[in-house]
Write a structure and sequence with these properties.
Number of domains: 2
CATH class of the largest domain: Alpha Beta
Number of strands: 7
Structural class: alpha/beta
Order of helices and strands: EHHEEEEHEE
Radius of gyration: 21 Å
Strand order of the largest sheet: 5-4-3-7-6
Length: 157
C-alpha cells in the first residue's frame, strides 16, 4: 500500500471531515431524499435529483477518505530544524525578477490548500525547493517559463 506523508494537523482535519460526513451529512441527505420522495413523481422532482446528486458526492468523499486515512504516514515536523527545506517547512521565497515575497508550507498532497499558503510536496515548486537551503537560488518550472526564486527563510513550527 502506498503511504502518503501528512502532518498531524492534516490527518486530524481529514478524520474530522469523515466524522462529519458519516455522522451528520449522510443522515441529513437520507432524510432529504425521503422527504423529496414523499412529494410524488420522481421524474420531475428537482429536490429529489439534487439530493441524490449530493448523496453521490458525500458517498464518494467518504470512500475517498476511507482509502486515504489508513495510508497516511504522519510526519512529526516538530523534530525538524535548520535552514534546509524538508517536509513541513514554512519556506519564504522571493521572486528574483519581480521581488515578490511569498511564504508556503510544504505539506501532504491531501492537505494542500493554496489559499492558506500550503502547497503539496508533489507540486513542482515544492519539488524544486526540497533539500535546498536559505540563500539558495532555485529554478522553478512555471507555465510561462522557469522562474528563479531565492529562499530567504525556512522555519519549522
Amino acid at each position: 500500500m502506498q503511504k502518503f506523508p501528512m502532518t498531524a494537523e492534516g490527518l486530524a482535519r481529514l478524520e474530522e471531515e469523515l466524522k462529519v460526513l458519516k455522522g451528520e451529512e449522510r443522515p441529513a441527505i437520507i432524510r432529504a431524499i425521503a422527504e423529496a420522495r414523499a412529494h410524488g413523481d420522481l421524474s420531475e422532482n428537482a429536490e429529489y435529483h439534487a439530493a441524490r446528486e449530493r448523496q453521490s458526492f458525500i458517498e464518494g468523499r467518504i470512500s475517498e477518505l476511507e482509502a486515504i486515512i489508513p495510508a497516511v504516514e504522519v510526519i512529526d515536523v516538530a523534530r525538524f530544524s535548520g535552514d534546509q527545506v524538508k517536509f513541513g517547512a514554512r519556506v519564504t521565497i522571493v521572486d528574483e525578477e519581480s521581488e515578490d515575497e511569498k511564504t508556503y508550507r510544504i505539506v501532504g498532497q491531501y492537505e494542500a490548500d493554496m489559499k492558506n499558503g500550503s502547497i503539496s510536496v508533489t507540486s513542482p515548486l515544492a519539488k524544486a525547493l526540497m533539500g535546498k537551503k536559505v540563500g539558495d537560488s532555485v529554478e522553478v518550472p512555471a507555465p510561462g517559463g522557469a522562474r528563479s526564486v531565492e529562499i530567504t527563510a525556512v522555519a519549522y513550527a
